[in-house]
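User: Second chain of the day. Same drill as before.
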Amino acid sequence: MKRRLAVWAVAVGFAACMLGYLWVGTTLSAPAHRPATPPPGYLQARTVHIPSSSGTELVAWYAVPENPKAAAVLLHCVRCNRVDMLARAELLWRNHFAILVPDLQAHGESTGEAITFGYLESRDAVASLGFMRRHHPTLPLGAIGSSLGGAALVLAGSSLDSDAVVLEAVYPTIDEAVANRIAIRLGPLSKVLTPLLLLQLEPRLGVSRSELRPIDSIGQLSCPVLIVAGELDRHTTKEETIHLFEAATGPKELWLVEGASHQDLYSYDPEGYTANVLGFLEHYLLGESNAEVTS
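Assistant: Same format as last time:
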Protein backbone atom coordinates (compact mmCIF):
# COMPACT_ATOMS: atom_id res chain seq x y z
CA MET A 1 0.00 0.00 0.00
CA LYS A 2 2.77 2.43 0.96
CA ARG A 3 4.58 1.70 -2.27
CA ARG A 4 1.42 2.32 -4.28
CA LEU A 5 0.82 5.61 -2.47
CA ALA A 6 4.39 6.68 -3.16
CA VAL A 7 3.97 5.93 -6.87
CA TRP A 8 0.71 7.90 -6.92
CA ALA A 9 2.37 10.80 -5.10
CA VAL A 10 5.19 10.90 -7.65
CA ALA A 11 2.70 10.71 -10.53
CA VAL A 12 0.55 13.50 -9.10
CA GLY A 13 3.63 15.63 -8.46
CA PHE A 14 4.86 15.09 -12.00
CA ALA A 15 1.45 15.93 -13.44
CA ALA A 16 1.29 19.10 -11.34
CA CYS A 17 4.75 20.14 -12.55
CA MET A 18 3.77 19.54 -16.17
CA LEU A 19 0.58 21.53 -15.78
CA GLY A 20 2.54 24.33 -14.17
CA TYR A 21 5.08 24.24 -16.97
CA LEU A 22 2.35 24.45 -19.60
CA TRP A 23 0.55 27.21 -17.68
CA VAL A 24 3.70 29.34 -17.53
CA GLY A 25 4.24 28.94 -21.27
CA THR A 26 0.64 29.91 -21.95
CA THR A 27 0.82 32.92 -19.65
CA LEU A 28 4.06 34.27 -21.11
CA SER A 29 2.80 34.17 -24.69
CA ALA A 30 -0.83 35.16 -24.01
CA PRO A 31 -1.96 38.39 -25.71
CA ALA A 32 -1.91 41.57 -23.62
CA HIS A 33 -4.87 43.45 -25.08
CA ARG A 34 -6.17 46.53 -23.31
CA PRO A 35 -7.53 49.91 -24.39
CA ALA A 36 -5.28 52.96 -24.36
CA THR A 37 -6.05 56.10 -22.41
CA PRO A 38 -6.20 59.24 -24.60
CA PRO A 39 -2.92 61.09 -25.24
CA PRO A 40 -2.53 64.73 -24.14
CA GLY A 41 -4.61 67.06 -26.30
CA TYR A 42 -1.72 69.34 -27.15
CA LEU A 43 -0.03 66.54 -29.08
CA GLN A 44 -2.97 66.58 -31.50
CA ALA A 45 -2.26 62.89 -32.05
CA ARG A 46 -4.63 60.96 -34.25
CA THR A 47 -5.23 57.25 -34.16
CA VAL A 48 -4.15 55.38 -37.28
CA HIS A 49 -4.45 51.73 -38.33
CA ILE A 50 -1.48 50.10 -40.04
CA PRO A 51 -1.54 46.66 -41.70
CA SER A 52 1.46 44.50 -40.83
CA SER A 53 2.85 41.40 -42.48
CA SER A 54 2.62 39.81 -39.03
CA GLY A 55 -0.99 39.26 -40.10
CA THR A 56 -2.33 41.89 -37.73
CA GLU A 57 -3.60 45.45 -37.81
CA LEU A 58 -1.63 47.82 -35.64
CA VAL A 59 -3.33 50.66 -33.81
CA ALA A 60 -1.04 53.64 -33.31
CA TRP A 61 -0.84 57.29 -32.34
CA TYR A 62 0.56 59.57 -35.00
CA ALA A 63 1.49 63.17 -34.18
CA VAL A 64 3.29 65.80 -36.22
CA PRO A 65 4.58 69.05 -34.68
CA GLU A 66 4.85 72.26 -36.64
CA ASN A 67 7.87 72.17 -38.95
CA PRO A 68 9.16 68.71 -38.03
CA LYS A 69 12.87 68.20 -38.51
CA ALA A 70 12.94 64.39 -38.10
CA ALA A 71 10.62 61.43 -37.55
CA ALA A 72 10.66 58.55 -35.11
CA VAL A 73 8.87 55.30 -34.28
CA LEU A 74 8.61 54.21 -30.64
CA LEU A 75 8.01 50.55 -29.74
CA HIS A 76 7.00 49.45 -26.24
CA CYS A 77 8.10 46.62 -23.95
CA VAL A 78 6.45 43.22 -23.48
CA ARG A 79 2.92 43.20 -22.02
CA CYS A 80 2.79 47.00 -22.29
CA ASN A 81 1.15 49.24 -24.88
CA ARG A 82 1.69 52.59 -26.58
CA VAL A 83 0.76 54.49 -23.41
CA ASP A 84 4.03 53.29 -21.86
CA MET A 85 6.02 55.12 -24.55
CA LEU A 86 4.07 58.37 -24.21
CA ALA A 87 6.68 60.24 -22.15
CA ARG A 88 9.37 59.46 -24.73
CA ALA A 89 6.98 60.45 -27.50
CA GLU A 90 6.32 63.81 -25.85
CA LEU A 91 10.07 64.40 -25.46
CA LEU A 92 10.64 63.84 -29.17
CA TRP A 93 7.55 65.78 -30.21
CA ARG A 94 8.66 68.80 -28.17
CA ASN A 95 11.96 68.63 -30.01
CA HIS A 96 10.26 68.70 -33.43
CA PHE A 97 10.02 65.00 -34.25
CA ALA A 98 7.00 63.57 -36.04
CA ILE A 99 6.14 60.49 -33.99
CA LEU A 100 4.41 57.15 -34.46
CA VAL A 101 3.64 55.10 -31.36
CA PRO A 102 1.99 51.75 -32.18
CA ASP A 103 0.71 48.87 -30.12
CA LEU A 104 2.69 45.83 -31.22
CA GLN A 105 0.77 42.77 -32.36
CA ALA A 106 -1.09 40.99 -29.54
CA HIS A 107 -0.73 44.10 -27.38
CA GLY A 108 -2.98 47.03 -26.55
CA GLU A 109 -5.61 47.59 -29.21
CA SER A 110 -3.74 45.88 -32.04
CA THR A 111 -4.91 42.46 -33.16
CA GLY A 112 -2.87 39.31 -32.62
CA GLU A 113 -3.22 36.00 -30.83
CA ALA A 114 0.14 35.48 -29.13
CA ILE A 115 3.27 37.34 -28.08
CA THR A 116 6.24 35.98 -30.02
CA PHE A 117 9.09 37.76 -28.22
CA GLY A 118 10.15 39.78 -31.26
CA TYR A 119 9.58 37.34 -34.11
CA LEU A 120 6.25 38.60 -35.47
CA GLU A 121 6.77 41.94 -33.77
CA SER A 122 9.76 42.55 -36.06
CA ARG A 123 7.30 42.74 -38.95
CA ASP A 124 5.35 45.35 -37.02
CA ALA A 125 8.56 47.36 -36.69
CA VAL A 126 9.07 47.22 -40.46
CA ALA A 127 5.42 48.22 -41.08
CA SER A 128 5.64 51.14 -38.66
CA LEU A 129 8.83 52.51 -40.17
CA GLY A 130 7.33 52.05 -43.62
CA PHE A 131 4.35 54.16 -42.58
CA MET A 132 6.62 56.99 -41.51
CA ARG A 133 8.75 56.76 -44.65
CA ARG A 134 5.66 57.11 -46.80
CA HIS A 135 4.33 60.08 -44.85
CA HIS A 136 7.69 61.84 -44.35
CA PRO A 137 9.92 60.77 -47.24
CA THR A 138 12.29 63.74 -46.86
CA LEU A 139 12.82 63.50 -43.09
CA PRO A 140 15.53 61.43 -41.37
CA LEU A 141 13.90 58.57 -39.50
CA GLY A 142 14.86 57.01 -36.18
CA ALA A 143 13.43 54.38 -33.87
CA ILE A 144 13.41 53.63 -30.16
CA GLY A 145 12.55 50.16 -28.91
CA SER A 146 12.21 49.15 -25.27
CA SER A 147 12.79 45.48 -24.38
CA LEU A 148 10.39 43.61 -26.73
CA GLY A 149 10.22 46.68 -28.97
CA GLY A 150 14.00 46.75 -29.20
CA ALA A 151 14.16 43.04 -29.97
CA ALA A 152 11.61 43.63 -32.74
CA LEU A 153 13.84 46.29 -34.29
CA VAL A 154 16.94 44.10 -34.16
CA LEU A 155 15.23 40.94 -35.43
CA ALA A 156 14.01 42.90 -38.46
CA GLY A 157 17.66 42.90 -39.50
CA SER A 158 18.40 44.22 -42.97
CA SER A 159 14.68 44.84 -43.57
CA LEU A 160 14.73 47.70 -41.06
CA ASP A 161 14.63 51.03 -42.90
CA SER A 162 15.90 53.36 -40.18
CA ASP A 163 18.61 56.01 -40.07
CA ALA A 164 19.35 55.50 -36.35
CA VAL A 165 18.16 53.03 -33.71
CA VAL A 166 18.00 53.15 -29.92
CA LEU A 167 17.71 49.78 -28.16
CA GLU A 168 16.72 49.68 -24.51
CA ALA A 169 17.17 46.56 -22.37
CA VAL A 170 17.24 44.11 -25.29
CA TYR A 171 18.02 40.46 -24.64
CA PRO A 172 20.86 38.90 -26.73
CA THR A 173 19.24 35.43 -26.93
CA ILE A 174 15.92 33.99 -25.82
CA ASP A 175 17.84 31.33 -23.88
CA GLU A 176 19.46 33.97 -21.68
CA ALA A 177 16.23 35.96 -21.36
CA VAL A 178 14.26 32.95 -20.07
CA ALA A 179 17.08 31.70 -17.83
CA ASN A 180 17.52 35.10 -16.18
CA ARG A 181 13.82 35.54 -15.48
CA ILE A 182 13.48 32.09 -13.93
CA ALA A 183 16.67 32.55 -11.91
CA ILE A 184 15.33 35.79 -10.42
CA ARG A 185 12.35 33.87 -9.03
CA LEU A 186 13.61 30.31 -8.52
CA GLY A 187 17.39 30.51 -8.40
CA PRO A 188 19.25 27.33 -9.45
CA LEU A 189 16.04 25.71 -10.70
CA SER A 190 16.44 27.84 -13.83
CA LYS A 191 18.95 25.31 -15.16
CA VAL A 192 16.21 22.66 -15.15
CA LEU A 193 13.19 24.77 -16.06
CA THR A 194 14.71 26.90 -18.84
CA PRO A 195 15.09 24.02 -21.34
CA LEU A 196 11.53 22.88 -20.56
CA LEU A 197 10.08 26.31 -21.28
CA LEU A 198 12.14 26.74 -24.44
CA LEU A 199 10.84 23.40 -25.73
CA GLN A 200 7.40 25.03 -25.98
CA LEU A 201 8.49 27.77 -28.37
CA GLU A 202 8.22 25.96 -31.69
CA PRO A 203 5.09 23.85 -31.09
CA ARG A 204 3.28 26.75 -29.41
CA LEU A 205 4.40 29.73 -31.54
CA GLY A 206 6.02 28.25 -34.61
CA VAL A 207 9.27 30.01 -33.69
CA SER A 208 12.59 28.32 -33.03
CA ARG A 209 15.19 29.42 -30.49
CA SER A 210 17.58 30.21 -33.34
CA GLU A 211 15.11 32.81 -34.65
CA LEU A 212 15.12 34.67 -31.35
CA ARG A 213 18.76 35.68 -31.18
CA PRO A 214 19.10 39.48 -31.55
CA ILE A 215 22.84 39.08 -31.04
CA ASP A 216 22.98 37.32 -34.44
CA SER A 217 20.86 39.99 -36.17
CA ILE A 218 22.25 43.23 -34.81
CA GLY A 219 25.17 43.22 -37.23
CA GLN A 220 22.67 43.43 -40.11
CA LEU A 221 21.46 46.87 -39.03
CA SER A 222 22.88 49.38 -41.49
CA CYS A 223 22.54 52.44 -39.27
CA PRO A 224 24.04 53.88 -36.08
CA VAL A 225 22.94 52.06 -32.93
CA LEU A 226 22.70 53.21 -29.31
CA ILE A 227 22.36 50.40 -26.77
CA VAL A 228 20.95 51.39 -23.38
CA ALA A 229 20.49 49.25 -20.27
CA GLY A 230 20.31 49.49 -16.51
CA GLU A 231 23.64 48.70 -14.94
CA LEU A 232 21.91 46.50 -12.33
CA ASP A 233 19.42 44.86 -14.71
CA ARG A 234 19.01 41.17 -13.87
CA HIS A 235 16.62 40.43 -16.75
CA THR A 236 19.33 41.39 -19.26
CA THR A 237 22.61 41.60 -17.43
CA LYS A 238 25.35 44.17 -17.92
CA GLU A 239 27.59 41.49 -19.41
CA GLU A 240 24.89 40.40 -21.89
CA THR A 241 24.34 44.02 -22.92
CA ILE A 242 28.05 44.45 -23.55
CA HIS A 243 28.08 41.28 -25.68
CA LEU A 244 25.18 42.67 -27.73
CA PHE A 245 27.04 45.95 -28.14
CA GLU A 246 30.18 44.13 -29.28
CA ALA A 247 28.16 42.30 -31.96
CA ALA A 248 26.85 45.56 -33.44
CA THR A 249 28.71 47.04 -36.41
CA GLY A 250 29.15 50.54 -37.73
CA PRO A 251 28.67 53.61 -35.56
CA LYS A 252 27.55 52.45 -32.13
CA GLU A 253 27.30 53.80 -28.62
CA LEU A 254 26.64 52.23 -25.22
CA TRP A 255 24.96 53.87 -22.22
CA LEU A 256 24.81 51.82 -19.03
CA VAL A 257 22.49 53.67 -16.68
CA GLU A 258 24.12 53.74 -13.26
CA GLY A 259 21.96 52.31 -10.48
CA ALA A 260 19.10 51.33 -12.78
CA SER A 261 17.57 47.87 -13.07
CA HIS A 262 15.02 46.54 -15.58
CA GLN A 263 12.74 49.57 -15.49
CA ASP A 264 11.57 52.62 -17.40
CA LEU A 265 14.92 54.28 -18.02
CA TYR A 266 13.41 57.58 -19.10
CA SER A 267 11.50 57.89 -15.81
CA TYR A 268 14.58 56.79 -13.84
CA ASP A 269 16.90 59.41 -15.34
CA PRO A 270 15.09 61.89 -17.59
CA GLU A 271 18.04 64.27 -17.81
CA GLY A 272 20.47 61.51 -18.70
CA TYR A 273 17.97 60.05 -21.16
CA THR A 274 17.51 63.39 -22.86
CA ALA A 275 21.25 63.96 -23.11
CA ASN A 276 22.14 60.46 -24.28
CA VAL A 277 19.15 59.23 -26.29
CA LEU A 278 17.84 62.47 -27.77
CA GLY A 279 21.42 63.63 -28.18
CA PHE A 280 22.24 60.46 -30.13
CA LEU A 281 19.24 60.90 -32.43
CA GLU A 282 19.96 64.59 -32.97
CA HIS A 283 23.58 63.82 -33.82
CA TYR A 284 23.03 60.96 -36.25
CA LEU A 285 19.79 62.15 -37.81
CA LEU A 286 20.60 65.85 -38.05
CA GLY A 287 24.36 66.10 -37.63
CA GLU A 288 23.97 68.19 -34.49
CA SER A 289 26.56 67.31 -31.88
CA ASN A 290 25.40 69.84 -29.30
CA ALA A 291 21.75 70.28 -30.12
CA GLU A 292 19.63 72.51 -27.92
CA VAL A 293 16.86 70.28 -26.60
CA THR A 294 13.67 70.73 -24.62
CA SER A 295 13.28 68.28 -21.72
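The chain has a mean pLDDT of 91.

User: Great, on to the next one.
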